[in-house]
Write a structure and sequence with these properties.
The structure holds two protein chains of two kinds. Chain A is an alpha/beta fold. Chain A has six domains: about 10-160, Glutaredoxin; about 175-375, Rossmann fold (3-Layer(aba) Sandwich), CATH 3.40.50.11540; about 390-550, Ubiquitin-like (UB roll); about 575-665 and about 995-1040, Fumarate Reductase Iron-sulfur Protein, Chain B, domain 2, CATH 1.10.1060; about 670-770 and about 920-985, FAD/NAD(P)-binding domain, CATH 3.50.50; about 805-915, FAD/NAD(P)-binding domain, CATH 3.50.50.60. Chain A contains 42 helices and 34 strands. In chain A, α18 (about 470-485) packs antiparallel against α19 (about 490-510) and α26 packs across α29 (about 640-650). Chain B has helices spanning about 15-25, 30-45, 50-60, 65-75, 95-100, 100-110, 165-180; strands at about 85-90, 125-130, 135-140, 150-155, 155-160. In chain B, a hairpin with a 5-residue loop joins β2 (about 125-130) and β3 (about 135-140). Mean pLDDT of chain B is about 85; it is low at about 1-5. Classes of the chains: A alpha/beta, B alpha+beta. Chains A and B meet through α2, β9, β11, β13 and β17 of A and α2, α4, α5 and α6 of B.
Chain lengths: ~1050, ~180
């Protein structure tokens, strides 16, 4: 290429570049950063190349870097002459023919379009592409890019990284030209200082001050270094910046060289980034070829030599003094500062080191000035920062935001939150030197100071979103393991301290930690932070200190309950399914026993774990599905329906059932003489009483109704859970020795204090029978009924009158149960829900079944008022259409009324907006309440209330929940009560040994998941007979063969 | 290390020429030692640094052998043992970790028959080669492919959004190709 040494040759290069960037033929640019190629961009590029050549199309085809929307890769930009540039997403090689057909016809393949760009501010210049395509959104109108400001990423994905003329066309090297012509280095440094540009590598030191110190240093030889050893796991912005726009980095460093008096620059790049190394090398050669780098740059007499060194995989080399040692051919161990590198750096010469992204900010400040730069970002931290938003968010990629943008904007607005049904737990910023910020602090603005206040750091810009499946203790351990192995070993606090920290954290993840370990861990971490020599050691404890600070509960769970809720710490769980089950059922065992055709053993295994297997087999929310490893292959094993199958099979075979019950009673321990009263015969109370009875205690349940089952009997409609099935299961519990006192209300018929005198312990487990009331006009009208009393009346076969047209308000299970019940009573049903479908708390299968049966669901509709007729009867309901507003603390978008009112004629309104416990009882109990004042306070681990020997569980301590959670509390309470009464741990003695295969299948069944069969919607919607039929024996067997046996460990 | 002069004869002349060329190219430049070592390892068919090469390098450059050894053992990139014919590199970066890369690592270890004793480091930092020298399994701190997590590099090709079954098939595929070749 021609050498550029005056204004006319510079302009010639610009014109040549513009002709390539906006040619008078269609231009197709394939995004080929590493993200793109990892998603198949190479094949897309070759398909375009082959066809353009084969069809003689004469279009311009180029490779560009990445535009940032990594989860939408491969991205392809298409621009027809005079038209906007259109970004196509998720393009596959198979799409190419159709795309070229469209282009040949002068069209844009709109169905593949992600967004369009009509004009672009390259900061150093401005490009007008054209206006058109009204149906395609502008780039900054789509959620991922909304609010982003592309200053550092100004060229990424738009120009060819390998073509210096395209770079010059968008204003490249103009800043360098200006600096060399002005020849006023102090003024440039003054501008950088005024702009308050802070180092983007993490520490945030003012770049202008560093440069000034360097300029003042007296020496014949000075070095500039670009730190591109991006070692933070979870951060990759530097990789993309270099791959997509290497010339901006070269220009920034050359300017830096001129103003600080350095004549030699070194790029220290990670060897793990081969594409970045390759593109940078090519860019250096091009720049040298044009006279923009090397000797006598732009003919202005300044010479600057730039070379590249590939780092060899040592995280500590991100520390500047270690990096310098590395360049000197030594192991990368840091040295104490002072002397600072600006005084005594590489080979003892003055040296200035800046992070990649810092250099990208130089040219824009030179061209647009410090005041312009300060318009963006916060007062202390102007400008933007590029973040890699990754982890569990739905939209991942590189996000460039003004500094000071709140965290929730990143997680929810840009990232789209986590997958439906999951909830965000935290965001990890700053990699191994940073920390985890909990979800309730997402209003925090992201800048250097605020993150530091929370114990984290901004670091190089990694942002890893974690959800409920991530264990914070494990995350702390993960980072300490990393820094432990990356510690250079030079200073003792870091080397030995991290080793001790890791040992302690391993004790936590294995369930062997003690209270003292938590204290020691905290102390060691502070010591490492305060005493280490370099940044690695000083920040390495941050992941530990922030998790202890913000997620102390999780540490306590690991050490007191030996539980890891997220199911990550394998030593604390049998398998992910067992861990997620509120009852901790040994799921792999019953699957394997059934697989071995041992139904009786399988049934015994199931009822030992869960005395209501057929009921829960029908109505459980099946959290196990969310954790099943098989879901990574195809779909989760249908564990719930297998245990329903096992229970149903046993109930259908009297002899088998009798044998299993005899074996169950054989497990029962000898009478202890202890007595326990249980208040409430719902799932919580039943589970507690059952286990207490098996443990040899006398368990007596007091129940206000005439039969046992609680919600299972009085809230769940027959079509979901037939009462004879429930009766069979109550039979198991009675068979285990539990006694019932029915039709007795505690607080009226019998007093708590009396029970305290008569029993050794009391367990409170009443449910949430109070319907919450919404305050809207018209609730006093005849025809407005709360859901639970409605369902209860139907269950008790009391006369219930619903009208012809029923509207149900709510989106939970009670709403769907009410709707389906009303359908069966012959009504037409409409459900109003104020949020979206994915936000509904109801089990999705239930919602779908209701729709199949004819219920209509109106989403984004909030009740406004109920309209009555002259006789005070409901005649219609009015709802306000809502739109989705900001994300609330539940991670769901808040419905905001739009003002548009819709009206539905109806004669009955069922309110199903939530349930609460009977406050009168709670208050009269004299027990300590939680802060909210509506629930009892208990010790998280023992479930004991403020009164000795009084325990509580289920809805009373959690609010409305579901049957399995409720039973889980009952089971846990029984274990704790027994331990207190007997002063020893007898729980594990309840389980006999089952002999069954202990090997993971080499070739698990290839079969897909079997779903439970449903009765045809038209048929089932007319009756209260059971709506689902369960699995067939063959289907159940196939499901057992799909299990991957996570309970079998390596080497077992 | 033994005296350098006695080891010259261990290297073939073309190897000596290659090394001399490398030294000339990088002599006196910052980062010279890293660049030379990286180039040597890249060229070696089993991608490792042989002791005799390091000794030759020490003798020719005047860099003490102890310093070279210190550098080679300090950086994760360098190998002192021959690497397998195929490389499987599992990213253990944060994004990959949160998306289940540890399970992938466990499964591959099982599939390749690598016991915990075979690797050099702790449970999560792995470099291990199968007994038949066909596969080397290693981990990397982060590939910078976080948006595609979990990521595995097989013979220098990045596989994105990897699940257990896909990885198992990929490795089976390499194994079958190998068997056919045999």
């Amino acid at each position: 290429m021609r050498r550029i040494d005056d204004l006319s040759s510079f302009h010639a290069a610009r014109e040549a570049g513009l002709a390539k960037l906006m040619p008078n033929v269609p231009r197709i640019a394939v995004g080929m950063g590493t993200c793109g190629t990892g998603n198949g961009a190479e094949a897309v590029y070759h398909a375009f190349a082959d066809q353009i050549q084969g069809r003689g199309l004469g279009y311009k085809l180029v490779r560009t870097g990445c535009f940032g929307a990594c989860s939408e890769e491969p991205l392809v930009n298409v621009r027809l002459p005079g038209k906007p540039l259109v970004v196509l997403h998720r393009v596959q090689a198979s799409d190419v023919t159709a795309i070229l057909d469209d282009i040949a016809a002068g069209r844009i393949p709109a169905e593949l379009a992600l967004c369009k760009i009509e004009e672009w501010d390259h900061i150093t210049s401005h490009v007008q592409y054209g206006c058109d395509y009204r149906e395609i959104p502008l780039w900054n109108e789509i959620p991922f890019f909304q609010g982003q400001k592309k200053l550092v990423l100004r060229h990424c994905g738009l120009i060819s990284p390998l073509d210096i003329e395209e770079y010059i066309a968008v204003g490249g090297y103009e800043a360098l030209y200006k600096v060399l012509i002005d020849s006023d280095p102090e003024r440039v440094i003054e501008q950088i200082k005024l702009a308050k540009l802070r180092g983007r590598g993490g520490a945030g030191y003012l770049t202008g001050l560093k440069w000034e110190m360097m300029r003042k240093a007296q020496s014949g030889q000075k070095y500039l270094i670009c730190n591109a050893d991006e070692g933070d796991p979870g951060a990759y912005m530097n990789r993309n910046e270099i791959e997509s726009d290497p010339h901006s980095l070269i220009e920034g460093m050359t300017i830096g060289g001129f103003v600080t008096g350095a004549t030699e620059g070194i790029l220290y790049v990670r060897a793990e980034y081969p594409l970045a190394v390759h593109r940078l090398q090519q860019a250096i050669e091009q720049a040298e070829g044009c006279g923009l780098l090397g000797e006598n740059i732009l003919g202005r007499g300044f010479s600057f030599k730039l070379s590249m060194v590939e780092g060899a995989g040592a995280f500590v080399c991100g520390e500047e003094t270690a990096l310098i040692r590395s360049l000197e051919g030594k192991a990368g161990r840091p040295t104490p500062r002072p002397p600072y590198p600006a005084q005594k750096g590489l080979y003892g010469k003055p040296t200035n080191i800046n992070n990649v992204e810092t250099w990208y900010n130089v040219a824009p400040i030179v061209i647009r000035g410090a005041n312009w730069f300060q318009e963006t970002g916060s007062a202390k931290s102007p400008g933007t920062k590029v973040f890699s938003l990754v982890g569990k968010v739905q939209r991942t990629g590189l996000v460039e935001m003004p500094l000071g943008t709140p965290l929730k904007t990143f997680v929810y607005d840009v990232g789209g939150g986590v997958a439906p049904g999951r909830s965000v737990k935290s965001v990890q910023t700053g990699g191994p030197s940073g920390g985890c910020i909990p979800q309730d602090m997402f209003d925090t603005p992201v800048d250097y100071e605020t993150l530091a206040q929370l114990g984290s750091i901004m670091g190089s810009g990694g942002m890893v979103v974690m959800d409920e499946d991530n264990c914070m203790v494990d995350v702390a351990r993960f980072f300490v393991e990393f820094t432990h192995s990356e510690s250079c070993g030079k200073c003792v606090p870091c080397r030995s301290g991290l080793d001790q920290s890791l040992r302690i954290l391993n004790k936590f993840t294995r369930g062997q930690a003690t209270e003292a370990d938590l204290v020691t861990l905290d102390e060691i971490s502070r010591m490492i932070r305060d005493m280490s020599l370099c940044g690695l050691g000083q920040t390495a404890p941050n992941p530990v200190l922030t998790t202890i600070r913000h997620f102390r509960n999780e540490f306590e769970d690991h050490l007191r309950a030996k539980r890891c809720r997220a199911g990550v710490c394998e030593d604390l769980a049998l398998s992910p399914c067992e861990n997620s089950c509120p009852l901790h059922m040994n799921i792999p065992r019953f699957l394997e026993l059934l697989k071995e055709d041992r139904t009786e053993d399988a049934f015994l295994s199931v009822i030992l774990d869960n005395p209501l297997p057929a009921s829960t087999g029908r109505v459980c929310q099946h959290p196990c599905d969310n954790r099943c490893r098989r879901a990574g292959v195809d779909d989760a094993v249908n564990m719930r329906d297998v245990h329903r199958f096992i229970a149903d099979s046993a109930f259908a075979d009297d002899a088998l059932y009798a044998r299993a019950m005899a074996r169950l009673l054989a497990v029962r321990k000898a009478a202890t003489g202890k007595k326990v009263a249980i208040i409430g015969a719902g799932p919580t109370g039943l589970a507690c009483a059952y286990y207490l009875s098996l443990l040899g205690h006398e368990a007596v349940i007091y129940e206000s109704n005439a039969a046992a089952g609680g919600m299972l009997r009085y809230a769940l409609p027959d079509y979901r859970l037939p009462k004879d099935t429930l009766d069979r299961e109550i039979g198991i519990i009675e068979g285990a020795g539990v006694k019932f006192v029915f039709n007795t209300v505690v607080g009226r018929d019998v007093m708590l204090n009396d029970l305290a005198g008569e029993y050794d312990a009391v367990f409170l487990s009443i449910g949430t029978w109070k319907e919450s009331w919404v305050y809207l006009p018209g609730t006093e009208l005849t025809g407005v009924i709360p859901a639970l009393p409605f369902l209860e009346a139907v269950a008790k076969q009391q006369p219930v009158t619903v009208g012809r047209k029923v509207t149900v308000i709510g989106g939970g299970n009670a709403a769907i149960d009410s709707a389906r019940t009303a359908l069966r009573l012959g009504a037409e049903v409409t459900i109003l829900y104020r949020r979206e479908r994915k936000d509904m708390p109801a089990i999705p299968e239930e919602t779908e079944a209701a729709e199949a049966e004819g219920a209509k669901i109106v989403f984004l509709a909030a009740p406004h008022r109920i309209v009555g007729d002259a006789e005070g009867r409901v005649k219609a309901i009015e709802a306000v259409k809502t739109r989705l507003g900001e994300y609330d603390s539940s991670g769901r978008r808040r419905p905001v009324p739009t003002g548009e009112v819709i009206r539905f004629a109806c004669d009955t309104v069922v309110l199903a907006v939530g349930e609460t416990v009977d406050l009168d009882f709670v208050k009269a109990s004299g027990l300590k309440l939680q802060e909210s004042g509506t629930m009892l306070e208990v010790d998280r681990y023992s479930l004991e209330t403020s009164r000795k020997n009084f325990y509580a569980g289920g809805d009373l301590i959690t609010g409305a929940s579901n049957v399995s959670n409720a039973m889980g509390y009952g089971k846990k309470a029984a274990r704790n009560i027994d331990q207190r009464l007997m002063a020893e741990k007898r729980w594990s003695q309840l389980w006999p040994d089952f002999e069954y295969a202990q090997s993971a299948p080499h070739h698990p069944s290839e079969s897909g998941r079997h779903h439970v069969r449903e009765v045809d919607a038209a048929v089932r919607a007319k009756t209260f007979h059971e709506a689902t039929l369960g699995l067939t024996p063959v289907e159940a067997m196939e499901e057992t063969c799909r299990c991957l046996r996570c309970d079998v460990r390596n080497g077992d | 290390m033994a005296a350098a002069s006695s080891t010259h004869s261990l290297l073939r002349p073309e190897e000596q020429d290659f090394l001399d060329g490398l030294i000339r190219k990088h002599q006196g430049q910052p980062g010279m030692l890293l660049a030379i070592l990286e180039a040597i390892q890249e060229r070696q068919p089993n991608h490792y640094l042989q002791p005799e090469v390091l000794e030759y390098l020490a003798a020719r450059t005047g860099i003490p052998g102890s310093q070279i050894y210190s550098v080679v053992t300090f950086y994760a990139l360098f190998n002192l043992r021959p690497q397998g014919e195929h490389s499987v590199c599992i990213c253990r970066g944060t994004a990959c970790h949160t998306r289940g890369s540890r399970t992938l690592l466990e499964r591959v270890k099982l599939q390749l028959g690598l016991q915990d004793g075979d690797d050099d480091g702790s449970a999560d930092k792995v470099t291990a080669t199968t007994a038949d020298k066909k596969f080397t399994l290693r981990t990397v701190a982060c590939f910078g492919q976080c948006a595609l997590a979990p990521v595995v590099e097989v013979d220098h090709n990045i596989l994105s959004h990897v699940n257990e079954r896909a990885l198992e098939r990929e490795i089976d595929h390499l194994r079958e190709n190998r068997d056919e070749a045999n």
